[in-house]
């Protein structure tokens, strides 16, 4: 029974307020005073919980003006975008109207927003509370039109695509709509889209907006969806990631010009791999990571490390071949002489290596009296040099093809966006 009596009292209060609102269509002013009287304003303040419409079957039209000021942060792991917005809302209050001629020519006043009804517009993608400073006042003109400026630090969910990092372009949506009122109560209109963008890691490409209807069951909500397209500035990552990695790969290629019979080449390559591993560990924080996929730059670093390991393996093989020339001076098999010393050497045009090996053999002639051992040693030396040149050119071809593929993929992605 108590609940029924409370419902009856609220209904009676609503009827009294509605009848009072119908009785006056404009606020009253006193002669010699600028602005509506406190009594007439208080009557409007008492109606704060109710939508300001004389005919409740007519929806309240709310206009939204959207300005993107800055992108504060992008978290690829949690798929969260943090932005700072300037949001301006317009709506019509049918009980806040007065005649400027009766109010000493006053056409605009500011009122506390907490004393007036305001549309419950939210962003559907928000995932955290707004911690920005709220504006406590609204501007009201004599026709009843209200303007409310809001500073909004928006933390919203966004489906971030990081495959083309650091040359990626993100397209995030901001969906504005009422939390409780359906399209029969509140209609949304889009006014203007603008931006006053500050410098940072991201640059704004475009902002688009569209009004649509969101249907849930039998109810329909009027919503406005904004598409914000932003592009990452890649200079930081090119300087800190791509260029150092390219330098290390270049040094690895130049290390093939070290003498293959020298142990310094293997130790140099192992040191280079260790340095590249440390580089990846230090730069790991700059690389985005999600559960959905891996950026192409991460694949690039992994393949570069694999190529360095292959380069070290090639050095191990060549060192093992050259080691035969210093053990028992075994004779080079006939198929090795035919395949490597004849065909492969002619194919890659390194028959001048025989003269080099012969020269090395002549230098060693005064140190050994066994001509056969010297010839066998030179043959194995020749085999090692030919294999070294062959594997070096194959390695260089792999790196060139890999670099062309990576650059082509990034160029295609940029041209498509």
TrEMBL record:
InterPro entries: 5HT3_rcpt, LGIC_TM_5-HT3, Neur_chan_lig-bd, Neur_chan_lig-bd_sf, Neur_channel, Neuro-gated_channel_TM_sf, Neuro_actylchol_rec, Neurotrans-gated_channel_TM
One Pfam family this sequence matches: Neur_chan_LBD
Major location category of this protein: membrane
Lineage, broadest ranks: Eukaryota, Metazoa, Chordata, Craniata, Vertebrata
One GO CC term, this protein: postsynaptic membrane
GO terms assigned for molecular function: extracellular ligand-gated monoatomic ion channel activity; transmembrane signaling receptor activity
Function: Forms serotonin (5-hydroxytryptamine/5-HT3)-activated cation-selective channel complexes, which when activated cause fast, depolarizing responses in neurons.
Domain Neurotransmitter-gated ion-channel transmembrane: 241-348
Keyword Disulfide bond assigned: yes
Localization per Swiss-Prot or TrEMBL: Postsynaptic cell membrane
Topology within the bilayer: Multi-pass membrane protein
Keyword Transferase carried by entry: no
The protein's name: 5-hydroxytryptamine receptor 3C-like
Secretion signal span: 1-32
Catalytic activity, reaction form: Na(+)(in) = Na(+)(out); Ca(2+)(in) = Ca(2+)(out); K(+)(in) = K(+)(out)
Transmembrane segments: 235-258, 270-287, 299-322, 394-415
Gene3D superfamilies recorded: Neurotransmitter-gated ion-channel ligand-binding domain, Neurotransmitter-gated ion-channel transmembrane domain
